[in-house]
Design a protein that fits this description.
Helices cover 32% and strands 34% of the residues. It is an alpha+beta fold.
Length: 108
């Protein structure tokens, strides 16, 4: 009976590991091939990490975010987020740790 229980536990353990390997959690960063070669990848604004959005909101309040891209810049995972505030068009580039690399309005 003891050997049977150990076999069941072993099988369940192997099964759970294989399921985890096939389904990464939300905390795991999955990088596409486009990311790997440096080309920007269009992403939904709601997929931009909170730390990036908080850094942008601290820099400029009242922006309505319209587009976002993710790309590698000098070995840093970087997000480019575009938005509008009244008639102004804003562009932000922020590293995934919240460091703002650029914030410009209307190309200025």
């Amino acid at each position: 009976m003891k050997k049977l229980m150990m076999a069941v536990v072993l099988v369940l353990g192997v099964f759970s590991l294989s399921v985890y390997a096939q389904n990464p959690s939300n905390n795991d960063l999955v990088i596409s091939e486009d990311d790997a070669d440096g080309r920007p990848v269009q992403i939904p604004v709601n997929e931009v990490p909170k730390v990036v959005m908080d850094a942008i909101k601290a820099k400029q309040k009242g922006i309505f975010f319209t587009q976002a891209e993710r790309f590698w810049y000098r070995d840093l995972l970087t997000y480019q987020v575009m938005g509008r505030r009244f008639s102004e068009e804003w562009l932000f580039r922020v590293v995934d740790d919240g460091t703002v690399l650029m914030a410009e309005v209307d190309g200025r």
